[in-house]
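Ticket #4471: structure export looks truncated?
Reporter: QA, pipeline team
Priority: medium

Steps to reproduce: submit the single chain below to the structure queue and open the exported record.
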Amino acid sequence: MSPSSLEPAQAEFVGGRGYLAACTVGLPTRAVRDAVIADLDAATRGRPDPHAYTAAVEQSRAHFASLVGVARDRVAIGSQASVAAALVAASLPQGAEVLIAAGDFSSIVLPFVHSGRDLRVRTAPVDRLAEAVTSDTRLVVFSLVQSATGEVADAEAILAAAEVHGARTFCDATQAVGWLPVAASRFDAVVCHAYKWLCAPRGVSFLTVSARLERDMPALFAGWYAGADPWTSCYGGEVQLAPDATRFDVSPAWQAFVGAQPALALFASLAPADLHEHTTRLARVFRERLGVEAPERESAIVTWADPEGADLALLTGAGITASGRAGRARVAFHVFNDAEDVELAARALSR
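Actual output as written to the record:
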């Protein structure tokens, strides 16, 4: 049974049965759909409202800040994880060493490889990342939950090693926020794209920035929305940038934030521990049905070797939406899933 606190949220989703791909793209809630359609209808009638768009952006920022436990002025808005990673890369001195989890998602890897700053990029398996940190390491980069495998990184060990060696940390929480409690203040930077586990439209991302990183990070992509007062920052080069992390804002994709606001409000209203218990319990039962080895740290994502895609084909043939990554089949259990989804997927794979 799901925790009773999740029942109102579950009622917000209409298409979750057999959908085991929140790790690929989340499902919109009723409120998200209604908000996007209402905005489109208003614009069609010649009544777009830019100031309402700004309100949606700022409410979304506040909801995300609440979700990850930081002040809203520590949160910059964006649209892609790679842009956030490029900003963090620009904070580093020429030739600095960056330690990255091997095989991590390209959007947080390539900006360091192709930074133009001659960064020395070194990799290590995520389960040995902490022991790979040395006194030469300037920045440690990793996803809290690995996209390809669903493995949950040992963030505590990585943070402890980084502190010992004076390194900073950049964490991608895209596959985590929405089911796994995340304390963004523990890291120098956290990026999260909200279109997966937070069920927002694609084009809404967030970057949390520590005070010490803010001092070293240039506002490379500053535009009108990076100003202290965006609506008076539209012209010329004398614009005063915001005095906090919002100086790293990029111009928001308005319609995407219209949909993001109700999605983020929903997840900000839920108890993180209840979300974690519900999602990981379903994943645990599914792993036990398949005989998949339990991970060291529980995950809402279950993956297993499927080099030819045979298991993914079985799931698809049974009407189940799953995914395949890096030669592995991948399923994810979210708030809109329940025990019947586990049964449907397990039965499809037993054929």
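Status: closed, not a bug. The export was complete when the record was re-opened. Leaving a note from the reviewer for reference: The mean pLDDT is 96.
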